[in-house]
Amino acid sequence: MKFISWNIDSLNAALTGTSARAALTRQVLETIAGADADVIAIQETKLPQTGMNQKQEEALAGYFPDYENVWVSSHEPARKGYAGVMALYKKGMGVTADCPEIGAPGTMDAEGRLITLDLGDLYFSLVYTPNAGNELKRLGDRQVWDRKYADYLEGLDRVKPVVACGDYNVAHEEIDLAHPENNHESAGFTNEERAGFTELLARGFTDTFRCLHGQEKGAYSWWAQRVRTSKVNNSGWRIDYFLVSDRLKDRLVRSEMVDSGARQDHAPILLELA
């Protein structure tokens, strides 16, 4: 099976926007559509609580005519048009979908951050992990989220093997970002967030990229938009992951980033299982 995960940073802008950035985003959508994945996970859709309008639905179907989709958006008491995730899966797969709440603090459970698909012999769970925020204002809540999410994923794993993916908003090790020496107090690279990810893996999960690529350096999935030269200079972070239950390690074929061309921000990631 083949899976793709991508933080799109506004599905609406991608499907109907007219900016130069929207054009770049659509090029990435075309790349993803050509990969013929079984399941595609999209984070940060920023859709309203009511979901896509007709124009957006038609545009999405133009890229993915052979897929069905399920989505969850931010809703009260959380901010409107914030976060949100979507899963697309090939028609005829007989998928059962769930949008769980995990007992997260504040409004996190209402922000549209989790979808889990039952694919029969395994679970596919996609996540958009909350960012610790400016001045680390949300770091305490983020630590609670990490524990609750690890409990949730471990619970799924007790039933059947799990493929989990998404924007985890953390660079786990120093080799997962270009300039660790300057970022130890930055959101996404605090000791607390890194420890939370270590604990998640210890619950019985494998970072598929590291499993297949060892200590390879310079492989990143995100480059800051605000720094114009970040991608040209490959000054990036690896904060997007495919994780699998440890007992699926022997089925790993590929785990890699998908070329997103000149577009900064997130690149898609791809996983293939035998």
Supply the key terms.
about 25% strand, Deoxyribonuclease I, Chain A, six-stranded mixed beta sheet, 14 strands, about 270 residues
Describe the structure.
It is a single chain. The chain is an alpha+beta fold and 274 residues long. It has one domain: Endonuclease/exonuclease/phosphatase (Deoxyribonuclease I, Chain A, 4-Layer Sandwich). It is built from 6 helices and 14 strands. A hairpin with a 4-residue loop joins β6 (114-118) and β7. The longest helix is centred in the middle third of the chain and has 21 residues, at 139-159. The chain is globular.
The gist of it:
The chain is of the alpha+beta class and 274 residues long. The chain is built from six helices and 14 strands.
Secondary structure tally: strands: 14
Mean pLDDT: 97
Percent in strands:
15-25%
Determine the number of helices (DSSP H or I, runs of at least 4 residues): 6
- How far is the N terminus from the C terminus? 6 Å
Helix and strand run:
EHHEHEEEEEHEHEHEEEEE
CATH class: Alpha Beta
Structural class determined from secondary elements = alpha+beta
Principal-axes geometry comes out as globular
Q: Helical amount among residues, as a percent range? A: 25-40%
Question: What is the name of the CATH superfamily?
Answer: Endonuclease/exonuclease/phosphatase
Main sheet properties? 6 strands, mixed
Rounded Rg: 17 Å
CATH topology: Deoxyribonuclease I, Chain A
- Major β-sheet strand ordering: 3-4-2-1-14-12
CATH architecture: 4-Layer Sandwich
Instruction: Tally the structural domains.
Output: 1
Q: What are the low-pLDDT stretches, counting only 5+ consecutive residues below 50?
A: none
